[in-house]
């Protein structure tokens, strides 16, 4: 496992587990937290050594989740388990924000109405169970602007309607970017880029210059345009 590239995600997962009363997983070669029965993002495990994919997924106890592997398994080891290749990317110095798309309004998620809009977009794009909405409400209340403050959920609206989401988790040495989603009809309008730069603005306001994220192959070009460079490919198992 490439610990520096996933340390922010691990810290976010640990903070979420404290809010939701999640369970810590501590096994030889595998650690992390399981906090939800409904949302894969809220359950994250990290392999630090060689572990059989089926054994790693079994630690999720039937819940949806991500298992970040130390190395890519063979086809025989993987079997029918779905494997996603993610790319760890970093921006060593967050840049000056680009102008907002003229049709978009981007703001922090502070009210319950904001949270409902944020989750509606997130759930539609990621396929999260609607029952996870209350979990995200608890997370935002505890870790968001009204609580401890290390987590910022961002919502882009077009003509007043929720259209795209993002999130950023702050640590002293880095800001981690997560949960970037855009509704299909709203894509290719620059909303994702605007949300990335809004995260950068928030990081700079806290004196944080470095940012890290894990990108899919399709998302990689947009992050590269925002100043991110590729660090390493990371295999991740998906548990349904």
Structure in words:
- It is a single chain.
- With 240 residues, the chain is an alpha+beta fold.
- It folds into two domains: 3-86, no CATH class; 104-232, Gcn5-related N-acetyltransferase (GNAT) (Aminopeptidase, 3-Layer(aba) Sandwich), CATH 3.40.630.
- Helices cover 31% and strands 32% of the residues.
- It has helices spanning 3-20, 53-58, 75-78, 112-126, 133-143, 191-205, 220-225; strands at 23-27, 30-34, 43-47, 65-68, 83-91, 104-108, 151-158, 161-171, 174-182, 211-215, 229-239.
- It has an eleven-stranded mixed β-sheet with strand order 1-2-3-4-11-5-10-9-8-7-6, sandwiched between helices.
- A hairpin with a 2-residue loop joins strand 1 and strand 2.
Overall 3D geometry? globular
Quaternary: single chain
Share of helix, binned:
25-40%
Q: What about the largest sheet?
A: 11 strands, mixed
- Shape-level CATH architecture of the largest domain: 3-Layer(aba) Sandwich
The H-and-E topology, N to C, reads as HEEEHEHEEHHEEEHEHE
**In the CATH hierarchy, what is the superfamily of the largest domain?**
Gcn5-related N-acetyltransferase (GNAT)
Regarding CATH, which class of the largest domain? Alpha Beta
Helix count equals 7
Structural class: alpha+beta
The fold-level CATH name of the largest domain is Aminopeptidase
């Amino acid at each position: 496992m490439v610990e520096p590239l996933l340390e922010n995600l691990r810290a976010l997962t640990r903070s979420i587990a404290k809010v939701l009363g999640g369970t810590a997983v501590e096994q030889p070669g595998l650690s992390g937290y399981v906090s939800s029965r409904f949302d894969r993002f809220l359950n994250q495990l990290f392999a630090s050594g060689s572990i059989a994919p089926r054994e790693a997924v079994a630690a999720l106890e039937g819940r949806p989740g991500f298992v970040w592997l130390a190395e890519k398994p063979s086809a025989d080891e993987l079997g029918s388990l779905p494997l996603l290749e993610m790319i760890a990317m970093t921006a060593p110095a967050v840049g000056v924000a680009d102008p907002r798309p003229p049709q978009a309004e981007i703001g922090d998620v502070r009210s319950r109405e904001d949270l409902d809009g944020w989750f509606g977009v997130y759930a539609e794009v990621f396929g999260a169970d609607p029952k996870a909405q209350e979990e995200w409400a608890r997370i935002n209340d505890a870790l968001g602007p009204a609580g401890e403050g290390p987590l910022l959920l961002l919502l882009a609206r077009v003509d007043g309607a929720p259209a795209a989401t993002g999130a950023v988790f702050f640590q002293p040495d880095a800001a981690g970017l997560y949960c970037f989603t855009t509704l299909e009809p709203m894509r290719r309008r620059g909303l994702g880029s605007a949300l990335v730069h809004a995260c950068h603005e928030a990081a700079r306001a806290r004196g944080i210059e470095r940012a890290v994220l894990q990108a899919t192959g399709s998302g990689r070009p947009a992050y590269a345009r925002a100043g991110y460079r590729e660090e390493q490919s990371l295999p991740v198992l998906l548990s349904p």
